[in-house]
Amino acid sequence: MSFREDGYAAVDWAARYLDRIGELPVLAQVKPGELSGKLPLAAPEQGEPFANVLRDLDDLIVPALTNWQHPRFFAYFAVTAAEPGILAELLAATMNQVAILWRASPASTELELRVVDWVRRLLVLPEGWHGHIEDTASTSTLAALIAARHVTGRNVVVCSEHAHSSVDKGARMLGMELRKVPVGDDLGMRTDVPLDDVAAVVATVGTTSFASVDPVRALAERARSAGAWLHVDAAYAGSAWICEEERWSQDGVELADSLVVNPHKWLMLPMDCSLLWTSRPEQFREAFSLVPEYLRTPEDAFALSEYGPALGRRFRSLKLWAVLRCFGAEGLRAIQREHIRLAKLFAGWVDENPAWELVAPQRFSLVVFRRHGTDEENEAIVERANAGGEIFLSHTKLDGRYVLRLAIGNARTTEDDVRRAWEVLNR
Ligand SMILES: Cc1ncc(COP(=O)(O)O)c(C=O)c1O
């Protein structure tokens, strides 16, 4: 087995996959269990060449892929794993740093602190915030709720009815009581709720369903006077703060106790990379720090494992470093601005066509809309469009009505792709 030859073949495979991505169906065209039926029940006794694995990628795995790198992937929040990030993942695995404490990987620890701070500057967040990388926004929000409970000694979480399910899940895992607050006409969370016994208020900038924005400043001020922690979930939309014209949605975020932004959603990073900042680093650390004897070292150095649930940490900062350097802030802004332009264009087509309606204000790179008619008719449109493999989009509900979401987030998506989506939906 030659690492070098297999490596070249693997990179060739990756390049070929990305070259023909637009020709593949977006949504996997397989039935549940179809791949399982083709996979051996047990691992082989004898080792095989790596070439066999590559062959089976084509034969078995690709047909069962929903192609998230496809330019006509418009479901959930569409994403991009940019090439420098892909290569950095290979290199990170090569070095296999297990950054449990500074000594175990000075490189991973210090690069992570620096590049997360690069992003803080790009997003124009306050100086002095501590930021580190978690795997997902679900973990970041869970960590924030743990810190909030530790600091306040309270057990209640408050969020909007449109907050992401990771808030429900975090509260449930922690045995905390969750209170959901209705939204106003602009789909932002109402602020007139009692907070006296509340540990954490979770405000969302860019909700999953509608990309709506909670009134962060008002919530932050109310949380502060009630002694509650304010966590901001900007997992999707926070990345857009690299663009000055999107920073209206940042109003009040500087007052937050913690904030999550996912570069794996809209900063072209491969899964997984979630950034968690706190303006209260010492208290955050207190909630998590637990250093057993076998991990004590003479250096007085920073251990990122003292700021979150995980001890062993992947070298995730490498891909963030690579993507930020290879695109530059300007390159990333240009991609996001094109996504926002395309979303506006699509929203305009919907708005002008009497058969369709926009159901929520168009924000960032998301369009939420429906065709006049019943829920069943709208659901049938989505299911038929997705089954054809040309486009993939997903749905949500607003006031009990079935609505469609078109999310733009892939760097390969062009105006032609968005036009094609509109044609497919009308067909
Ligand atoms: C607003 C918001 N918060 C949190 C999440 C959860 O993200 P993750 O998959 O990184 O846990 C999502 C996922 O789409 C989201 O849209």
Shape: globular
The low-confidence runs, each spanning 5 or more residues with pLDDT under 50, are none
Over all CA atoms, what is the radius of gyration? 23 Å
Structural class: alpha/beta
Q: How would you sum up the major sheet?
A: 7 strands, mixed
Average pLDDT metric: 97
Q: Give the SSE string.
A: HHHHEHEHEEHEEHEHHEEHEEH
Which ions and ligands are bound to the chains? pyridoxal-5'-phosphate
Report, as a whole number of angstroms, the end-to-end distance: 51 Å
Q: DSSP helix count? A: 12
Total number of strands: 11
| Main sheet: strand order | 1-7-6-5-4-2-3
Helix content: 25-40%
Give the strand content: 5-15%
Short description:
With 427 residues, this protein is an alpha/beta fold.
Keyword list:
427 residues, alpha/beta, 7-stranded mixed β-sheet, 4-stranded antiparallel β-sheet, 12 helices, 13% strand, globular, binds pyridoxal-5'-phosphate
Detailed description of the structure:
It is built from 12 helices and 11 strands. The protein has 427 residues and is α/β, with parallel strands linked by helices. Strands 1-7-6-5-4-2-3 form a 7-stranded mixed beta sheet, with helices on both faces. The relative contact order is 0.15. The structure holds pyridoxal-5'-phosphate (PLP). The site of pyridoxal-5'-phosphate has 15 residues, from helix 5.
